[in-house]
Amino acid sequence: MYYGVVFLFLIVSAQGDYFADRDAFIKEEASEMLGGSIQLTEKEEKVNRILMQYKFREMDAGFQNPRNFAPSQHFFQARRLIDNSNVFKLIQTIPKGALLHGHDVCLVSSDYLYALTYRENLYACTVNGRLRMKFFESGRQDNTCNWNLINVLRIIDPSYDRWLRSQINLYTTHPKQRYPNINDVWETFESIIFSVLELLTYRPVFEEYFYQVLQDLYDDNVMYMDFRGFLPSLYELNGTIYQPLETIRFYEETIEKFKRDHPKFLGARLIYSPRKDDNATMSSSITVAKEARKTNPKFVAGFDLVGQEDARYPIIAYLNELKELQALGMDFFFHAGETNWFDTKTDFNLIDAILLGTKRIGHGYAITKHPKVMKLVKERQIAIEVCPISNQVLMLVDDMRNHPAATLIANGFPVVISNDDPTFWGAKGLSYDFYMAFMGIAGRTADLRLLKQFALNSLTYSSLPADEKRAAIASWEKDWQNFIDITISSYANEIPH
Amino acid sequence: MYYGVVFLFLIVSAQGDYFADRDAFIKEEASEMLGGSIQLTEKEEKVNRILMQYKFREMDAGFQNPRNFAPSQHFFQARRLIDNSNVFKLIQTIPKGALLHGHDVCLVSSDYLYALTYRENLYACTVNGRLRMKFFESGRQDNTCNWNLINVLRIIDPSYDRWLRSQINLYTTHPKQRYPNINDVWETFESIIFSVLELLTYRPVFEEYFYQVLQDLYDDNVMYMDFRGFLPSLYELNGTIYQPLETIRFYEETIEKFKRDHPKFLGARLIYSPRKDDNATMSSSITVAKEARKTNPKFVAGFDLVGQEDARYPIIAYLNELKELQALGMDFFFHAGETNWFDTKTDFNLIDAILLGTKRIGHGYAITKHPKVMKLVKERQIAIEVCPISNQVLMLVDDMRNHPAATLIANGFPVVISNDDPTFWGAKGLSYDFYMAFMGIAGRTADLRLLKQFALNSLTYSSLPADEKRAAIASWEKDWQNFIDITISSYANEIPH
C-alpha cells in the first residue's frame, strides 16, 4: 500500500513536470514568433482581450465548420465573410503604418475605377476581344482603333456595362473554372492593365486617381507608401504628351496636395519599376531610372523589375544594367520568388536579389525553400513584402493557411504585409490583407503584438531616410495610443476579464 | 581610352566574381538538400543523366503549360499524366526500401479491393445510405441489417456496381465540388472504412488481402513495411470470432508465407494504432497494446493513435495511458500535425509527440510552423513520414509544390515518403508518392541522390532492430546495384553525355 502511494505520487509529479515542460516549449516558440518580444501595456492588454475574443470565436467557428472560415476560401468568396468579421472591423481601425508593396495603377477600389468609366470624352474599342479605353476631344479620335463613346455604348447595349466591368476586374464566381491555371489568370491580369492604362494616364484623371489612391490608404489608417510605378507617359486632350520624367512631377504635386488636405499623412515615394522586357525597352528604362534618380533623389526611393516572374527574363539577364544603377547609388527592392517553381530560373531570382543587395524582397513566396536565402535575409534584416490576397488570386496558394509566410512569422522574420494590386480583386486599402495574414497565415495564438509588429515593421523597413523614419514612427505611436484609447472606450462593454 | 579599358576590365572582372559567388551560393544550398551529401558513382551518374533528362523534359513542359504538370493537379486528374511519365516508369523500377507509413486496411489497389466484392457469400445492406458488406453462410445472416447477396443485387440493378464502387473509393471527377471542405472528405473516408471493414475482416479474405498488400509493395520494389494496424477482430462463417491479439497470428503467418514465396522480401512489423476514442474504448486498446507488446515483442514495433486529427482528442488527452505504455518500453510513432490549423490543440500534437519521445512523426504537415519542433527533430533525427498524395486528397494541400516538405527536403531533414491509404484514391505501391515528392515537392535540380536518400532513409528510420537493419540495408544495396546495371543496359541508347 505504501509503495502504491509513492508510485502514484511519482506518476503525478512526473506528469506535473510534463505539463511544465510543455508550457515552456509552447512559450519558447511563442517568443520566437514575430511580435513575440513586444510587451503590451495594461491598456493594450485590454484591447488585446477584445481582439482575441473575436479571433477565437471566428477561428473556432471555422475549426468546427470550414465554410465559416474565410482564409481557407478564395477571396472572391471570402470577402463577404470578412466584411462581417469583428476582427476585420477592429483591424480597419488599427494604425497600420505604411504600404510597402503596391503598384500605382492597381491601388484604388474597383468601384472607384469603374466610376471613372463614366467620365466625359471616354471612348472604347476592342483589341483582340479586349477592352481598350482612351479620352479624346470630340471628333479628334485617333485611327488606331474603332472608337466609340462609352456612354453611348452603354445606351445602345444594356449588357455593355456588365462586360466592361468584367474587363477591369479579375472577379468571377468560379475562379478555378475561369482560370484553370496560373498562366490564365496572369494573362487576364495583364490585359486588364492594357484596358485601364489609357483611362488612367489621361493627366487630369491620373491626378484625381492618384489622390484617391492616397485617400483609400488614409481612410484605412495607412499613412505612408513606397509604391512601385513604371512612370507611364501622360496625355492631354490637346495632344500634349508628358514623358516619364515629367510624370514624376504630377505624382509629387498630388502627394503634396493630399498632404495639405490631410496633414497627418506622411507621403509616398516611388520605386521605379519598369517591366522586365526586351533589351531595347529595358535600355530606355535604365536611362529613365538614372535620370529620375539624379533629378528626384528624394522621391525616387529605388528600382525594381516587374511582370509575371515565371514568364519573363530573370533578374540575372539584366545584370550589367543593374550594376550600372547600383554604381550610381540606386537601391533595389526586387520582386523575387513569386513562384511555385522550386530551383528554377525564377526562384533563383531570390539569390540574385540577395547578391545585388536588395533592401527588401517583393513577395519572396519561394523563400522557405532556400535555406541560405533565409539565413541571410534574417541576418541582414531584409524585409519580406508578403501580399496574401495577391498570392491567392494570382494562384500561388489556395488555402491561406498554406502560405509560407507562416514559417516566416513563426521564426520572427522581418515580414511586412502589403496589398499589391487590390483594385483587380475587389479589395480596398490594406485591412483585407492584414486580416488574411492575422487569421489565415499566423496561428491561433498570434495577437495584437503581431499586428503592432506588422505596423512597426512597415515603417522600420520603409525607404524613408533616417530622420523622416524617426518622425514617422513617432507620429504612428501617437496614432497607436489614440487607437488604444478609442478602442477601450468604444468596446467598454465587451472587454473580457 | 586607357581608363576606359581599365574600367571595362573592372566591370567584367566584377561580373566574373558575381557569377562565381552565385554558383557558390547555389552549390551551398544544393549541398544542404536531402541527398546532397551522396557522391554518385560513375555508373550512377549515367542513370542520373537518364533520369534528369526525363525530369527536365517533364518539368519544362509543365513550366510552359501547367496543364502538362501532374503535381500541381489533383491526383484524380494527375494519375493519367503520371502513368505516361518516363520519370514515373523509372521510379517504379527503383528499389525504394521500406514503407513506413501505411494503414493495413487501405493498402491494396482499388481494383483488387473491388474484385473482392465478387466473392461468394458476400452480402450488402445500407446504413444511413452507406454501404455495409459482410460474409455469411447462406441463410445465416444476422438481423442487424437488411442483407442481400451482392452478386444478386448486381443482377437486379445494373447501376448497382457503379454505386458500390463509389462507396469504396474517394475518386470523383470533380473533387472540389464533391468535397467542398476537409470535413466532407474525411467523413467519406471514414465511411469507406466502415463499408470495407467486414469485407476485409473475414478471416480467409483477410489473409489473402494482406498477402496482396505485400505483393503490391514487392511488385513496386518495396521490401519491408512498418504498418499501422488497429488489430480488428476477425470472423469465420461458422461464427468464430478472433480477438485482436489472435489477429496478430494471421498477420505473422501471412508475412511468413509471403517471405517463403518471395525470399527477398524482408518482412513487416506492426505499429499498433487504435483510433483516438472515448476513454472506455481507449482503455481496452491500451490493454491490447500492453498484451501485444508482451506476447509479440518482435512483431509489435510500437504504438500510435489515428483518426482525423482535427476532429479527435489531442495526444495530451491520453497522457496517463501513454506514460504507462512508455514505462513498459513501448516505442511511439505518432501521427502529429496532420492539419492546417496553426497553434491549435491539433498541431500542438507535434509538441507532445516530441515530449513523449516519438521515434518518427506521421505526416508532420504543420511542422514548418514550429521552429523548436524543427530544431529537435533535426537534432534527434526523428524521421518525418511524408505522404504527399494523402495530404492532397485529404485536403491539406492543393498544388503539391506548396507542400511544406519542400522546406524539409531543402534543409536535409530526415524525410521518408509514404503512401498512407493508397486504396481509396486509386494509387498503388509507393511509386506515385515518390513521383509527387520528386517532381512536385523537391526542386527541379533534385536528382537520383534524393531518391537514393529517400530509399536509404526508409530503412535507416525503420523500426527494424539494429542487426536486421544492417542486413536490410545490405540487401537493398545489392538491389540498388542491380537496378543501376539494368537501367544502364535497358536505356543504353538514351544516356545523354
TrEMBL record, chains A, B:
Domain named Adenosine/AMP deaminase N-terminal: residues: 14-91
Catalytic activity: adenosine + H2O + H(+) = inosine + NH4(+)
Domain annotation Adenosine deaminase: ranges: 186-472
InterPro entries, A to Z: A_deaminase_dom, A_deaminase_N, ADGF, Ado/ade_deaminase, Metal_Hydrolase
Cofactor(s) needed for function: Zn(2+)
Enzyme Commission code(s) on record: 3.5.4.4
Superkingdom in the source lineage: Eukaryota
Keywords attached to this entry: Hydrolase, Metal-binding, Secreted, Signal
Xref: Pfam families: A_deaminase, A_deaminase_N
Gene Ontology terms, MF aspect: adenosine deaminase activity; metal ion binding
UniProt signal peptide: 1-16
Enzyme class: hydrolase
GO biological process, one term: inosine biosynthetic process
Main location: secreted
Location relative to the cell: Secreted
Any GO CC annotation of this UniProt entry: extracellular space
Family, similarity comment: Belongs to the metallo-dependent hydrolases superfamily. Adenosine and AMP deaminases family. ADGF subfamily.
Protein name: Adenosine deaminase
Organism: Pyrocoelia pectoralis
